[in-house]
TrEMBL record:
<protein>
    <recommendedName>
        <fullName>ER lumen protein-retaining receptor</fullName>
    </recommendedName>
</protein>
<dbReference type="GO" id="GO:0046923">
    <property type="term" value="F:ER retention sequence binding"/>
</dbReference>
<keyword id="KW-0812">Transmembrane</keyword>
<keyword id="KW-0931">ER-Golgi transport</keyword>
<keyword id="KW-0813">Transport</keyword>
<comment type="similarity">
    <text>Belongs to the ERD2 family.</text>
</comment>
<dbReference type="GO" id="GO:0016192">
    <property type="term" value="P:vesicle-mediated transport"/>
</dbReference>
<feature type="transmembrane region" description="Helical">
    <location>
        <begin position="179"/>
        <end position="202"/>
    </location>
</feature>
<feature type="transmembrane region" description="Helical">
    <location>
        <begin position="153"/>
        <end position="173"/>
    </location>
</feature>
<dbReference type="GO" id="GO:0005789">
    <property type="term" value="C:endoplasmic reticulum membrane"/>
</dbReference>
<keyword id="KW-0472">Membrane</keyword>
<feature type="transmembrane region" description="Helical">
    <location>
        <begin position="99"/>
        <end position="115"/>
    </location>
</feature>
<keyword id="KW-0256">Endoplasmic reticulum</keyword>
<feature type="transmembrane region" description="Helical">
    <location>
        <begin position="121"/>
        <end position="141"/>
    </location>
</feature>
<feature type="transmembrane region" description="Helical">
    <location>
        <begin position="58"/>
        <end position="78"/>
    </location>
</feature>
<dbReference type="GO" id="GO:0006621">
    <property type="term" value="P:protein retention in ER lumen"/>
</dbReference>
<dbReference type="Pfam" id="PF00810">
    <property type="entry name" value="ER_lumen_recept"/>
</dbReference>
Amino acid sequence: MNIFRFAGDMTHLISILVLLLKIYATKSCSGISLKTQELYALVFVTRYLDLFTDFVSVYNTVMKLVFIASSAAIVWWMRWHRVVKRSYDRELDTFRHHFLILACFVLALLVHQKFTLQEIFWAFSIYLEAVAILPQLVLLQRSGNVDNLTGQYVLFLGAYRALYILNWIYRYFTEQRFGRWISCVSGLVQTALYADFFYYYFISWKNNAKLKLPA
């Protein structure tokens, strides 16, 4: 644990709280990609297979449970809540995320740290998280206008991964055997996917204007 990882965890948690606030307060999931949320739920379930076998700390266990429970709750709200599901932008959320799942699983079989079930699923979750935001970014690009809470959700989500890159840099210089290169490369790819969004978010903030993404 270091300050960069803690800040990253808190930023990630804030992004989820912002999304839950949007859904609960407005009873709407407009502008949110269900496919991205399903991918994140799959990421957390496959990454935390060690939840009940390898205890690290109370903090670690609680955060894992929070991420799994919150992602499941978001998917439930968007799929089955009788009011919220009506606002789902089904016509815009058409990214074929099944191909991402298949590609990431094949990559995990080929590139992993150890050929064990848990390590393969861990690698799969890392690869999938790197591209899970794609359906969300495509939906926002198609819709054009982005409401404040949705924009803040994506911003915090991108900031979380950027902070984790600082965490890995710190660990590289402070740990004798740093071997999380899969996380580093995937994290760089994931952060790069946010670059365009960050640019337009900064422009809208600078001009005090509503955030709009080019179609």
